[in-house]
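Minimal example, chain plus magnesium ion.
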Amino acid sequence: MSEITNGKSVAEFFGCNVFSDQVMRERLPKTVYKSVQRTKQLGIALDKDIADVVANAMKDWAVERGATHYTHWFQPMTGVTAEKHDAFINPHGKGEVILEFSGKELVKGEPDASSFPSGGLRSTFEARGYTAWDPTSCAFVKDNSLYIPTAFCSYTGEILDKKTPLLRSMDVLSEQALRILRLFGNTTCTRVTTTVGPEQEYFLVDKKYFDQREDLVITGRTLFGAKPPKGQELEDHYYGNIKQRVSDYMKDLDEELWKLGIYAKTKHNEVAPSQHELAPVFTTSNIAADHNQLTMEIMKKIAIKHGLYCLLHEKPFAGVNGSGKHNNWSMSTNDGQNLLDPGDTPQNNLQFLTFLCAIIKGVHEYAPLLRLSAASAGNDHRLGANEAPPAIVSMFIGSELEGVIEALENGTKYSYGDNKTFEIGVDVLPDFPKDTTDRNRTSPFAFTGNKFEFRMLGSADSISCTNTIINTIVAEELCQFADELENSQNFKKDLKALLVKTIKEHKQIIYNGNGYSDEWLEEAVNVRHLPNLVSTPDALPEYITPKSVALFEKFRVYSELELRARTEVLLENYSKVINIEALTMIDLVRKRILPAVFRYTKDICDTGASKEAMGISSAVEKDLAAKLSSLTEGIYKETAALEEKVIAAQEQECGLPSARYYRDVVFAQMQTLRCIVDETETNVSEDIWPLPSYTTLLFTV
Ligand code: ADP
Ligand code: MG
């Protein structure tokens, strides 16, 4: 237990390292505090004098907590966070310093941005980038620095990060949702906020064994590894009791997150051995995104303290489940309603069905964008592999709600229970038990009682892109609905007609069956014509289709230039990841695996020769040596082939052609090589095999 938490209850130390609203209220003059609140709500710039007062208060508060530095903390397109630290010191008098932090330094930073991916948006001679304070996310102290959450853009104003588009998408959704709420007679609500609760999966392995696996160290996943005798088939790990070492880790992790004001709530063992999950209580999307980045970082940091390593890769081990990040999403009003809660008046029910239909239409029309929001080299191992949703986007709304929608479409009453019926706009929607909507775990986009759960996202990904896309899609549909209904002379009648039309045209996206089955794949593709974008290079071009560009430009979430840049960054990243994996494989084979097999073969041959000398048959040794020789030959040949293909990959045109080549040629060759190496592993003594086995990695924590 740390000094801060020692003897204190969670309620006492929760958020102690956060420059929270409450701290601001305590430490800032009333007028200054009010200015900051206005800035937050209206998204306007802070006056210079006021910024100076805020900065000074922040510095004093941070210094009391041991901070010596401050950093603008931002989220470039790498998907991880970036920071550069400056000390508060300023020379003063003879050899003395005073601690200073100005409003200017708080509000704006100018990091040299030339080494962050920009997708061609910024040439090196214009290397400067800007970071700008995001007052909607609280500053905090960590590792003796004051962290200031910021947005990041280029010298010429193009966005270079993941936070800015998310903030923009939240604004556009709010604006369009408010138009709908006004139609329902709501005059009190002034802001609709999107909320997110991301469930984070991860693996813990012993650091000692992790360090012995070059593939894990460099790529985050095992590139080789024969299947262990036991995997997850006994289903004894899911929700199983948590081992002491893991439990100690989780306790420390919770404490660290709580100090930073992160609502870490639920923890349990997951399906695969050594796999776990952490879920926070949901909060505003923007803050949820910042908190998720911090959570991932702190998960890794705390693991090291416990002699563990936390793997966030989507597929660290072949043959057992990989890790995802379920993105629970809803919208709530500042007058206290969750817009995806069916509500308990006929009026609220109708409003709920309106938002529901907008989401159904949005997911159907923009399914490829949702798919691409979860696209990465790591996540390609999961989607469609019978452990995560398929690469086809569909929606699950539960049989009761499907019944309601059907009744609406057919103009009939919805019958339920013992001869009870429900009429839309007249009766109160029946109370659906939550668990009936939460049963289908195979759907990529599932309604779970009062929120939607998007299940495609990979564990290592930032949640920003997914939420930017969900928010913008839903804003577009709400905008279309509002455009049509705002001039209506008979709102209820026209609304019903609009909902019926929406359901008829878009119910193809609703599927309540088993999303993992082959029948679904067949039906989705051949009967319903839903897009099946199997891999990352298939999905990414969807960013820059005319339809997508029109959507994002309409709401000024991204310009076409920014979309093209993003696509380029992501494609390049995909190729680079596979390139690094292939090179790591070649390195491992030549420097560690082949030498080990040679040594083992020699041992066997020596044994055989000794036996022969004593007149004992060496048939077994001969047989085994011959087998290993042949495997060695195979490894040698396939490694050379992989090397040739990696070299040829450099000749491919950048962007899509290169990414496709990596997928079809390089990755395919990696699989071939892996196969033969894994077979060899099962024929070599564990003492000699240079990499800790799957059994060692998965079952020793
Ligand atoms: P599970 O999917 O494992 O059954 P829960 O139902 O407990 O999990 O919730 C999962 C996540 O959904 C939690 O992070 C929770 O805070 C979040 N959640 C609940 N309500 C909302 C909401 N209105 N908006 C966004 N997320 C929500
Ligand atoms: Mg869930």
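The CA atoms of residues 604 and 621 lie 6 Å apart. The two ends are 22 Å apart (CA to CA).
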